[in-house]
User: Fold this.
Amino acid sequence: MDSAWLIPAFPFAGFVLNGLWGRRLSRKQVGMVACGAMALAFATALGLFWLLLRHSPDQRVWEPVYYTWMAVGDFSVNASFLLDPLTMVMVLVVTGVGFLIHIYSTGYMHDDPGYARYFAYLNLFACAMLILVLAGNLLVLFVGWEGVGLCSYLLIGFWYEKQSASDAGKKAFIVNRIGDFGFLLAIFLTFWTFGTLDFREIFHAALLRFQPGDGVVTAITLLLFVGAVGKSAQLPLYVWLPDAMEGPTPVSALIHAATMVTAGVYMVARCSVLYALAPLSMGVVAAVGCATAVFAATIGLVQNDIKRVLAYSTVSQLGYMFLGCGVGAYVAGIFHLMTHAFFKALLFLGAGSVIHALGGEQDIRRMGGLRRQLPVTFWTFLAASLAISGIVPFAGFFSKDEILFETLVTGHGVLYVLALGGAALTAFYMFRLVFRTFLGESHVDPESAHHVHEAPLSMAVPLMVLAVLSLVGGWVQVPMLENGKRLGRFLAPVFEDAEGLLTEGTAHGSHASLWTEGVFMALSVVVALAGIGLAYRWYVADPTRPERVAARFSRAYRWLLNKYYVDELYQAVVVELLKRLAETVHEWVDRAAIDAVVDGAGAFFRHAGTHLRRIQTGLVQHYALSILAGACLLILAALAV
Amino acid sequence: MVPLHGYLVVSALLFVIGVTGVLVRRNAIVILMCIELMLNAANLSFVAFSRELQNLSGQIFVFFVMVVAAAEVTVGLAIIVTLYRNWKTIHVDEIRMLKG
Assistant:
């Protein structure tokens, strides 16, 4: 529909209002503008969703073209959107979860001096994210892609007077640049190959011109994936996301859990046709996703900062989404993206509520026993933890299980085992967090223990809504039931071509029997329960045990606690090397060559001046002599010719 | 009848004397007179060529030169008077403030 532009336009209007006049508005007005903009965007999205559902499934694609953005020779790009079921799911998640987080922020940021600035950035982020998911071609997508990157930077470094926060912002920006470089190359290569950047035209041409495994498509998809790796914090570019926790907690919930970091997954799903034509890239996506899922989960086991545990958990869950996309289960990947947006936003908001109650404390070693004082936070946090651990009937169970099951039936046995192990780790670290924060003895600093208070209504309501979503969010895609897979049917037209390609040569299109599916489903629940049980034994039944285990395996513990020393490795290898290179270039190119030329030019004229000025004697007769000499020379020259 | 080159030789001599005077003399009034000498050397050439070629333009030009020379002397003398009032000298080698 043509009115799709309204969806990003509302948050943009909110950004302009709060950005330009926010200082003069009262806090209440700022909050009203920001939340109102998101509410209007959400309402518009719901309206479009309703319109979309009224069409038959094969006609649920709209491509509103607003104007020709640029046209240079053969190169022409439109400012166009692409509205199909995949976009719709993303838009609903971004506006819906975004709206809830905006409301939560009015409570969480209430005493912050940068209130208007915060909401202006948050609205700008929503606008950029919506442009990203609505984009009808790669270049518009790239605009949104860079826009969310910018907002991420601004919001991570929101408390810029803190050195660590501004450092973290810079780190996020720079690491993302590496990924974006790959993404840009992919755009160039796409244009070079297809002569267009429009999604539908690219996919159409790719299906006609290329066979699975062709080099160009593999190159494009791998480069696109480099971009996704940066944005979605996968190995080896995940390092910025844990540091991004320096930003305000609702920002972590919105940008670094629910929406922006899933942009990579969305992009891979959007280009599913290209990936289906490149089996090698699919393998890379699946392998990187799976490796990240397990790797980040192991780090999450021992971290002590509540937000950092959640950050590693996000990295890990994003790995699961990529695993889903990599094995061709795009619906499962997007499904997990959606449920993850609900429960991970809830986890972050719950963590924010705890931090808020404790006056800024983030270390779980100084928490404990908060269940009685923060009942709403506890119960909602518990719901989200059950969801992420994959316990029936919470949302995460359905989505994670579908990814695991699809991994198995497409014949990726090793990845399946790893991912299942990762699921056990997930359950363990999440319940470690729950138990250490809410159960057991209180280790809260007595000073702040008096001030512990439950979240205000503006924060509690979004928690409750998200808790409900974390419970029912998975019911749109129930396996084994007749007509259970509603989301799958809704998204089917988008992934039709890709899935057709993937099932073409192989026989894995035939579905495993219900019985097998049931067994593996039970297996993942058992694994998750085992993780929770272990966490209970260690952190509730016998609280001294973790320390003994840590002492016993002190070396492994230190490795995990220091995050495998990856940051140190990057510091030593990449940062120091580049610094050395920069110093060398500075010394030899800047100082020795460029500065020498520029300084030399200056010195030459200065010296020339000091000597030549003696010619100007002030004696008129000297000048007359030179005039005479000149005249003689001219005459001689005239004679010579 | 004096041939053309006779006039030209005299004209060249006058011109060289003028140039030399401008270059070597210190007194501003003498320099001014030497400039007049150069102008008149040119006038002599004009008149000589005018008669040789039977063309009156040369003689017309001489009148112009004379008018310009008169104006020039007026301005030049005024400058010299002002110079003398300020420096109490009209020796050009003593008036050399404009130097690098």
Observations:
- The two ends of chain A are 81 Å apart (CA to CA).
- The interface with chain B takes residues 612-621, 624-625, 628 of chain A (CB under 8 Å).
